[in-house]
Amino acid sequence: AQSVTQPDIHITVSEGASLELRCNYSYGATPYLFWYVQSPGQGLQLLLKYFSGDTLVQGIKGFEAEFKRSQSSFNLRKPSVHWSDAAEYFCAVGPGYPGGSYIPTFGRGTSLIVHP
Amino acid sequence: EAGVVQSPRYKIIEKKQPVAFWCNPISGHNTLYWYRQNLGQGPELLIRYENEEAVDDSQLPKDRFSAERLKGVDSTLKIQPAELGDSAVYLCASSLGRRDRGYNEQFFGPGTRLTVL
Fold it and tell me: Does B110 sit within 8 Å of A42, measured CB to CB?
């Protein structure tokens, strides 16, 4: 069965500092990997996704993530955090299949706190 | 273009009472999902519709939960009777479900926060 581990429940950074959120997955085949952001009172918004090819993927809002198969990781990074980045971040893994919509398995999330 | 609309945004009920949530997906999206998000957890799929057909409802607690999407557009999720453990955020999402694409992004609504007292 597929699973996702986000080892950090909370991360606190200062505005302008760099950020890395960790994600480890377990999946039997080549995974589809995703990062979502959820602001308070909002639904989830897709930041970026990895299916194949270049292991460094760029997303919206200046985020990027790197797929490392040997480490079963898909960590999210941002070089300079803004106060508006404070939110809950979810890593997800799931199969995709031709003509269908994937059903992801989500991690428990990491809450990002940004200090001014 | 409007996103996924859910109502109500918040609901507080006593245990054993019924409750219903409504979702209107993005226009043209034929696939609709209901998720439950417990506090401090990621969303978990309850049921997925393709048009009006429920194609994946294995995680729906069928003794008390029911869902419908009669005309393949909007959908209602019902709990009857509600239990204390049903307190959670119920998220609706939709996607195009185009069969010529390997991946169809899900777009999420803001959710309904249910509190059962």
Answer: yes
